Amino acid sequence: MMLRGAIIGLGSVAVHGHLPGWQARRDIEIIAGTDTDAAREGELRSRFPQARWYDSLDALLAGAALDFVDICTPPATHIDLIRTALRRGLHVLCEKPLVTRPDDLDAVAKLVSTNDRVLYTVHNWHQAPVIRKVSELVREGAIGEIRGCAWQTLRTQPAGSSESRVGNWRTDPAMAGGGVLMDHGWHVFYILSEWLGRMPTGINAHLETRRHFEWPVEDTATVRLQFPAATAEIFLTWASDVRRNWARLEGTRGEIRLEDDTLVLIARPSEIEQRWPCPPALSWGSYHPDWFGGVAGDFVAEVTGRSAVRGVSLAEAFLCATLVTLAQESSRQGGVPVPVPELLGLGAVETTWKR
User: Same domain, yes or no, for 27 and 91?
Assistant: First the structure.
C-alpha cells in the first residue's frame, strides 16, 4: 500500500531529518510540500523532484490527493495545522512538542477519535541505539526494579534554526512554549516514564537563566519526577561548556549507565561490568535522520493497521505536555512539589511500556 504524503514546513529538521527518512521508504510517496518561504521549494525538489509545491496550506489541501501530512513547523503553529489536517480526514505526523499547551490536546484527541485518524508525534529519541539498548535491558530485568534515575542533557546553546536570519524560534517563548525544558525535557519525560513503566505521581522544578540572559526563556532546568517506587533527577542546560548526555538507572540488582554513545551495565552483588558501544553519541547532531526511520515505520504501521497498539504516541504527548506545564508552574511557585493528575488513556500505555 503506497501512502501519499505532504511536508508542511521545509526548515532544517525537515530537510536534514525527515526528507532522507521518507526517501528511504518504498511504501511512501511525498507528492507535495509547502512553506511560508517559497525559496525552500528547491529543498523539496532535491529529494522529491516529482513533488508539487504549493504556496499555501489551503492550496495544498485543495490540490493534492493525500493520505497524511508531516508537520515540521515551529511548535506554536502545530495546533491549527493539526486541526485543519484532521478535519480534512488526513493522518498527521508532527514534530515535538506536539502542542505547547495540554488543553489543546483535548480538542485534537476528539478529532482523532471522530475521524478515526492517526496523530503521531516524532518521539525520535526512542529510536536512538543507546536508548533502545537501555530499554531492552530494563525489559529483561537486568537490574531488577528501578529505584532511582538521573539524567543530564548538556548543551552550549539551543539547536540552530533555518530562520536564524530573523532569530531562533527556540528562544521565543510565544513560538516555542518555553526554553530548554520544552526542547529537551519533553524527550526525557517520555523516555524515563517508559523505563520505569509507570506514570509519575509528582513533579517539582527550578527554571533559571545561567548564561544566555539575552533570551526571554530559561537556559537551565532542574527537575525532580516522583514515581510510585522511584525518583528521577533531571538536569537540562543550554549553558554548559560541553555537549554531552549522561544517565544512570539504579535498580535492586544493578546499575545501568548511559555515557553518550556507550552503555555500561554493572550487576550486583558481583560488580561484574559489561559495556556496549552504541554509536552515534546521543548528543551528536540535532536532526537525527537515522532515528527518523523508526518513527516513520511506527507511524505507517498505525496508519495501515499493522500496529498491535494504537495511540501510544498521542498518550505520551499528553503526558509530556502535562509535565512541562506542571514543571513551569512548580518553578513559578519556587519549586514546590506539584501532583501529577491521572490522565485518561495512559493505563494502556503503561501496559505497552512493560512489554
Answer: yes
